[in-house]
Design a protein that fits this description.
This is L-rhamnose isomerase. It contains 14 helices and ten strands. The chain has 388 residues and is an alpha/beta fold. The radius of gyration is 21 Å and the shape is globular. The termini are far apart. The structure holds 6-deoxy-beta-L-fructofuranose and manganese (II) ion (2 copies).
């Protein structure tokens, strides 16, 4: 069994992965949303479920909210509820993709009145951040066009910058704005923030409190995501990750499920670039559990990130560097792959137990009876957000 260095143990101990509140609601495809017994009926119950992930793993101390999906009358009460369950409220995600007014854009819209409405929504999100104690405002925009000639690409980019400037100006000193990119969907011809370069150009023009959010599912097939991770860390602009995995498009499947090796490569570059356990680089999940149970789906997810982090920390970086410098291609690749192929699960189980955590959090959660309890207690759970 592999043994962890004390520096590895320290790094693993510090690891924190923020959970998305929407992962606990029912979600599905445009064909069907399957209901799950025990689905939360309100944001309070979503947070209670998220707190279970933290309880069994000590990996997930924060929950991100989505406005208006998680709209409540009293955000301080939500915060007190979360803290009472041992978690904090995290990133506030805005939503400008579910209102008829936004058919042709929100922050980029030709009509100043629609832009005003979209900007005001973000200002409201910032007010909420003061009540929840959140640091990050995450903006993902569904804006773009379907047909060549439909939209003035340049004008939309300029309006986006103006709108973001107004939102940025309202941030408190303790706040950040993270701008998420996605290469397509729901728009199919052009998207206003399609790639890291556009997000970088927009946030760089805003200032130090604006960063890029990298969602691992938001790239074209074959994209070298770890290269983007390296570059954004190098530029000091990687603000957050939305982790998930994909086989085809933006599948929002469990991180590490589709391509564990890609997750390993990403985490290697995170470590190489000083992004691990760096407060500037928030680790988040952005997933939906369509057919699997949601709480164990989230437990599986944070464990996958933990396992790949442990493997990436095993890379013998000194030997790797020597092989790189001497041009020993095969030796460099062997060193890299050796770490990837190392099964860290027994060592992690032992290490968890030594910290008073269950060796197998999946089994411990299943044995706790929590899913059966919420299925009996909660009637009429709601969807993650879409169509709710
Ligand atoms: C967009 C997206 C975004 C979140 C989530 C609800 O694809 O992944 O990161 O707002 O949907
Ligand atoms: Mn995302
Ligand atoms: Mn997405």
């Amino acid at each position: 069994m592999v043994t962890f260095h004390s520096t590895t143990r320290f790094a693993l101990e510090q690891q924190a992965i923020e959970l998305p509140s929407w992962a606990f609601g029912n979600s599905g495809t445009r064909f069907k949303v399957f209901a799950t017994p025990g689905t939360p009926r309100d944001p309070f119950e979503k947070i209670a479920d998220a707190a279970q992930v933290q309880k069994f793993t000590a990996l997930a101390p924060k929950v991100a909210l989505h406005i208006p999906w998680d709209k409540v009358d009293d955000y301080s009460a939500l915060r007190t509820h979360a803290e009472g369950l041992g978690v904090e409220l995290g990133t506030i995600n805005s939503n400008t993709f579910q209102d008829d007014d936004y058919k042709f854009g929100a922050l980029t819209h030709e009509d100043a009145a629609v832009r005003r409405k979209a900007i005001d929504h973000h200002l409201e999100c910032i007010d909420i951040m003061h009540a929840t104690g959140s640091r990050d405002l995450k903006i993902w925009l569904a804006e773009g066009s379907n047909y060549p000639g439909q939209a003035d690409l340049r004008g939309r980019q300029d309006r986006l910058q103006d709108s973001l400037e107004e939102i940025y100006a309202r941030l408190g000193d303790e706040h950040r704005l993270v701008l998420e990119y996605k290469f397509f969907e729901p728009a199919f011809y052009h998207t206003d923030v399609p790639d890291w370069g556009t997000s970088y150009a927009q946030v760089a023009a805003l200032g130090d409190k604006a960063m890029v959010c990298l969602d691992t599912g938001h790239h074209a097939p074959g994209t070298n995501i770890e290269f983007i991770v390296m570059q954004l860390l190098r530029l000091g602009k990687l603000g957050s990750f939305d982790f998930n995995s994909r086989f085809y498009a933006d599948d929002d499947l469990i991180v590490g499920a589709a391509d564990p090796y890609q997750l390993f490569r990403i985490l290697f570059e995170v470590i190489r670039g000083g992004g691990l356990n760096n407060p500037d680089v928030a680790f988040m999940l952005d997933q939906c559990h369509n057919v699997e149970d949601k709480v164990p789906g989230q437990i599986r997810s944070v464990l996958n990130v933990q396992e790949m982090t442990a493997r990436a920390l095993l890379v013998d970086t000194e030997a790797l560097r020597a092989a790189q410098v001497s041009g020993d291609v095969l030796e460099a690749n062997r060193i890299f792959m050796d770490a990837f192929y190392t099964d860290v699960r027994p060592a992690l189980a032992e290490w968890r137990e030594s910290r008073g955590l269950p060796a197998d959090p999946m089994a411990a959660f299943a044995a706790s009876g929590y899913l059966q309890r919420i299925a009996a207690d909660r009637v009429g759970g709601v969807q993650a957000g879409w169509g709710a």
